[in-house]
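Hey, quick one: can you model this chain's 3D structure?
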Amino acid sequence: MNQALIDLKDYLLSALPSQLEGGTTEYDELVVVAQASTIAKTMLFLRDDSECQFKQLIDVCGVDYPSRDPRFDVVYQLLSLRHNQRIRVKVRTDEATPIPSVTGIFSAAGWYEREVWDLYGVYFSDHPDLRRILTDYGFEGHPMRKDFPLTGFVELRYDEEQKRVAYQPVQLTQEFRRFDFLSPWEGARHILPGDEKATS
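Sure thing. Here's the predicted structure for all 200 residues.
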């Protein structure tokens, strides 16, 4: 276990007792859980404090846990070149509670937060330009949520009669089938289509 990360974890938990809910060191990585309402203050501290110096925001991503309340995690990955350390900051939220944007602290967060909004529907308050970044303008829903249907809601095709791209509701080309994935030599537990011909 990296002793420097353990020392940093203890330092952060003592310096930010009202902003951090906890922290762990696993696989030589430091993970802290911050409160959503104070994430901007936490990120400012991590960037400017002399013991931290996490000057680079590497990534912001979302995680969906549909059976948990609150449902979403927003995960910030930071890098300190000065101390050669990385830290992962997690924030928990739900569909209705906005998270303060950190674009004023890390300008790189602008597009990352747009991506989390687009794919998961997590809203960032005070974001200067929060709009979709990966999906189409008229897209409905957030496709990285685990309850989003794999086929989506609409499909896109070129209509030869209208001479333009047309959107229409998804239509599956085949009915639902029940696959048993058993070996054909062991035999299925139900009669497969065409087997009735072999017995007559």
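One thing worth noting: The chain has a mean pLDDT of 87.
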